[in-house]
Design a protein that fits this description.
five-stranded parallel β-sheet; 7 helices; binds flavin-adenine dinucleotide; FAD/NAD(P)-binding domain; alpha/beta
């Protein structure tokens, strides 16, 4: 807790440990704001991907490696970071109080950059075999499936990248997608289509995962069954917006926080950015940009308050 003062009212507290939060805090610090980051885990979603090839100025790096660079930058500016999960935010007089299980933090402004959690399929067997053949992270669990047969469920760019990663070590990778055409970046789609280890099964839903102690097969909506050692689920994410909802921040039908072009929410002093917000394109670089805009708007907001220190 070095450098963290629980009595102080910070100018800005940034919630999150992903690229959006760190980008926001770097700019806030450079605006000479008293900033604190409170993050449940450091790194966020991007740290779970094996390769990032679209972050400008870095042609190729692992997600973990990218976040190490973010950490170095954060540390070089001496931005305080605390590992904790905020459960609740309330407005008290002119500032906000943020509560975790064990401690409270205070700030004049807050940026919510809490990202999202992986979406579940909600089919029989998914929960039962989680960690026993069902995974939501190829980078984390892929190495356990050397020379095995696995599948990736989903058709996004992330699904394509997960399949390509898995194909390096496994015997065979099926991509099972309910649509007709992969929604991957053209370069990743081309790599998938050219891989002799990856086979795509289109227009198909998985309705059940079957096993005994561990996954053995999956069942399709056409009644067919496929024997498989590992099931990687990559069907998008659900925004972590509950804390925003509780304080009255406007949320859309997808549980995303509504923001404007200044990363402002409907509550003055509360900003949001990144995967938790309602921007249609969710990438590290766009999250960072929204986080940076949030820092700028928070700076303006706090300046207007004319606080006497
Ligand atoms: C497989 C895969 C591959 C991807 N590849 C790329 C890629 O190549 N390039 C790219 O640009 N993007 C990629 N993305 C997308 C990218 O990961 C996200 O857009 C990005 O991580 C969003 O950053 P974020 O900081 O908004 O949210 P997140 O990265 O999700 O971070 C949210 C953070 O908030 C913390 N948190 C949550 N709730 C709380 C709370 N209550 N209190 C405190 N902290 C909290 C979490 O612990 C986490 O640290 C990929 C995603 C996936 C799944």
């Amino acid at each position: 807790m070095e450098g963290i003062d629980l009595e102080k009212i910070y100018d800005l507290i940034v919630l999150g440990g992903g690229p959006t939060a760190i980008g926001c805090a770097i700019y806030a610090k450079r605006f000479a704001m008293e900033v604190l980051i409170v993050g449940k885990t450091f790194g966020g979603l991007i740290a779970t991907t094996h390769i990032v090839e679209n972050y400008p100025a870095i042609s190729s790096i692992s997600g973990q490696g990218l976040m190490e660079l973010f950490k170095e930058h954060m540390n070089s500016l001496e931005i305080p970071y605390i590992s904790d999960e905020i459960k609740n935010i309330e407005k008290v007089n002119d500032h906000f109080e943020l509560h975790s299980f064990f401690q409270n933090f205070k700030a004049y402004s807050v940026c919510i950059a809490t990202g999202s959690v992986r979406r579940k399929l909600g089919i029989p067997g998914e929960e039962e075999f989680a960690g026993k053949g069902v995974s939501y992270c190829a980078t984390c669990d892929g190495p356990f499936y050397k020379d095995k047969v696995v599948c990736v469920i989903g058709g996004s760019d992330s699904a394509a990248k997960e399949a390509l990663f898995l194909a390096q070590n496994t015997k065979k990778v099926y991509i099972i997608y309910r649509g007709e055409d992969l929604r991957a970046e053209p370069i990743n789609k081309k790599r998938v289509l050219e891989s002799d280890k990856i086979e795509i099964i289109y227009n198909t839903n998985v309705v059940e995962i079957i096993g005994e102690g561990k996954v053995k097969s999956i069942v399709f909506d056409n009644g067919k069954r496929l024997d498989i050692d590992g099931v990687f689920i990559e069907i998008g994410s659900v925004p972590n917006s509950d804390i925003a909802k509780h304080i009255g921040v406007d949320i859309n039908d997808h549980n995303e926080i509504k923001i404007n072009r200044k990363s402002e929410t409907n509550i003055p002093g509360i900003f949001a950015a990144g995967d938790v917000a309602d921007a249609p394109f969710k990438q590290a670089i766009t999250g960072v940009a929204e986080g940076v805009i949030a820092a700028y708007s928070a700076f303006d907001y706090v300046k207007e308050m004319n606080i006497e220190y």
